[in-house]
Amino acid sequence: MTQTGQLRLGVNIDHVATVRNARGGAYPDPIRAAKLAEEAGADGITAHLREDRRHISDADIDGLMENLSVPLNFEMAATDEMQKIALRHKPHAVCIVPEKREEKTTEGGLEVAREENKLAHFIAPLREAGCRVSIFIAADQRQIEAAHRIGAQVIELHTGAYCDFHAEGHFDKRDAELERMREMAAYAHSLGLEVHAGHGLTYDTVQPVAAFPEVMELNIGHFLVGEAIFRGLGPAISEMRRLMDAART
Ligand code: PXP
C-alpha cells in the first residue's frame, strides 16, 4: 500500500519554452528555469515533449537529463516515437497523457479503459527500464481501475475541470468536481496506486487539492511561469510551496 506523506511539488517548465519559441533562439532557457525551480524548492521538474515540439524540444530533454539534481517527470503521448525517446533517457518518471495536435493544452484525461491492452503493452518496457509510470486521467473509477490493471504505479488526476469551474464562477460544479476527485483519490490509494494531481492549478485553487491526504505530488506549470513575470520564478514557486504546506497541515 502506498503511504501518505509529504506533498511534492513538480514544476512544469513547458511554458518557459513557449516564450522562447515565440521568437526562436535561446532565451528564456528552460534549463536555467529548471535549476532555479530546484533552488526554490521544487521536488521535481516536469516537461512535456509534444509530438509537434511546440514548446519543449528534444535538446531541452537532453539538457534536463544532464543538468537536473531532482527527478525529471517526462510527459509523453503513447506513441512509438516517445517510447523510444523515453527508453533512451530512462527518466525517473514518465506520465502518459492524451495528445491532440489542435488542442491548446492537454484537455482531458487519457482513455485507459478503452485502450487497456495497447497501453499495458506500451508501458511494460518503460516499467522494465525503471521508470515510474503515471497515467493522467479524469477522476473516474473506470479509468482508475483500468490504470491499476495495466500496471501503472501512479495516477495523476486532471484538475483542469475543477480549475475551469472555479475561474468561470460555477462554484457548485467546482465543488462537485472537487468531491469527485477527493473520493477517487481515496479509491486509487486503496488500490495501492500513488496519487498525483495537476493541470491549471493556481494560488486560488491549489489548497483544497493539496489537502487530500492521498495526494503525494502536484504538477504545476502555466500559472507559475505567468506569476514569475510579476514576482520572479523563485518567489512564485516559494509561495506555491507555502500554500501547499499550509493546506497539508
Ligand atoms: N500535469 C499534466 C499531466 C499536464 O499535462 C500538465 C500540463 O502540461 C500539468 C500537470 C501542468 O498544468 P499547468 O501547466 O496548467 O499547471
Automatic annotation (TrEMBL):
<feature type="binding site">
    <location>
        <begin position="221"/>
        <end position="222"/>
    </location>
    <ligand>
        <name>3-amino-2-oxopropyl phosphate</name>
    </ligand>
</feature>
<dbReference type="GO" id="GO:0005829">
    <property type="term" value="C:cytosol"/>
</dbReference>
<feature type="binding site">
    <location>
        <position position="55"/>
    </location>
    <ligand>
        <name>1-deoxy-D-xylulose 5-phosphate</name>
    </ligand>
</feature>
<dbReference type="Pfam" id="PF03740">
    <property type="entry name" value="PdxJ"/>
</dbReference>
<keyword id="KW-0664">Pyridoxine biosynthesis</keyword>
<feature type="binding site">
    <location>
        <position position="105"/>
    </location>
    <ligand>
        <name>1-deoxy-D-xylulose 5-phosphate</name>
    </ligand>
</feature>
<feature type="binding site">
    <location>
        <position position="12"/>
    </location>
    <ligand>
        <name>3-amino-2-oxopropyl phosphate</name>
    </ligand>
</feature>
<comment type="pathway">
    <text>Cofactor biosynthesis; pyridoxine 5'-phosphate biosynthesis; pyridoxine 5'-phosphate from D-erythrose 4-phosphate: step 5/5.</text>
</comment>
<dbReference type="GO" id="GO:0008615">
    <property type="term" value="P:pyridoxine biosynthetic process"/>
</dbReference>
<feature type="active site" description="Proton acceptor">
    <location>
        <position position="75"/>
    </location>
</feature>
<protein>
    <recommendedName>
        <fullName>Pyridoxine 5'-phosphate synthase</fullName>
        <ecNumber>2.6.99.2</ecNumber>
    </recommendedName>
</protein>
<feature type="site" description="Transition state stabilizer">
    <location>
        <position position="156"/>
    </location>
</feature>
<comment type="function">
    <text>Catalyzes the complicated ring closure reaction between the two acyclic compounds 1-deoxy-D-xylulose-5-phosphate (DXP) and 3-amino-2-oxopropyl phosphate (1-amino-acetone-3-phosphate or AAP) to form pyridoxine 5'-phosphate (PNP) and inorganic phosphate.</text>
</comment>
<feature type="binding site">
    <location>
        <position position="200"/>
    </location>
    <ligand>
        <name>3-amino-2-oxopropyl phosphate</name>
    </ligand>
</feature>
<feature type="binding site">
    <location>
        <begin position="14"/>
        <end position="15"/>
    </location>
    <ligand>
        <name>1-deoxy-D-xylulose 5-phosphate</name>
    </ligand>
</feature>
<comment type="subunit">
    <text>Homooctamer; tetramer of dimers.</text>
</comment>
<feature type="binding site">
    <location>
        <position position="23"/>
    </location>
    <ligand>
        <name>3-amino-2-oxopropyl phosphate</name>
    </ligand>
</feature>
<comment type="similarity">
    <text>Belongs to the PNP synthase family.</text>
</comment>
<dbReference type="InterPro" id="IPR036130">
    <property type="entry name" value="Pyridoxine-5'_phos_synth"/>
</dbReference>
<dbReference type="InterPro" id="IPR013785">
    <property type="entry name" value="Aldolase_TIM"/>
</dbReference>
<feature type="active site" description="Proton donor">
    <location>
        <position position="199"/>
    </location>
</feature>
<feature type="binding site">
    <location>
        <position position="50"/>
    </location>
    <ligand>
        <name>1-deoxy-D-xylulose 5-phosphate</name>
    </ligand>
</feature>
<keyword id="KW-0808">Transferase</keyword>
<dbReference type="GO" id="GO:0033856">
    <property type="term" value="F:pyridoxine 5'-phosphate synthase activity"/>
</dbReference>
<dbReference type="InterPro" id="IPR004569">
    <property type="entry name" value="PyrdxlP_synth_PdxJ"/>
</dbReference>
<keyword id="KW-0963">Cytoplasm</keyword>
<feature type="active site" description="Proton acceptor">
    <location>
        <position position="48"/>
    </location>
</feature>
